[in-house]
Specification:
71 residues; alpha+beta; 1 helix
Length: 71
Amino acid sequence: RVVLSDGLVLDMGRNDVEPRLSRFISLLPKIRREDPRRLVHADLRYTNGFALTWRDPVVANPPVPATQAKS
């Protein structure tokens, strides 16, 4: 398991670490570009791919719900 400086956790397993990591790194720019959510975990232990866990992006100024008018 490796934790990157941005908090992304990578589970790589014990075998074939280099090809798994290489496959993930080659796709990471596209993954981040195409999804606005924050990537928090990548499980690279699969033979032909990986599983990703996302978190919704943090909104700096979340919308304030409108108050209902009272009569």
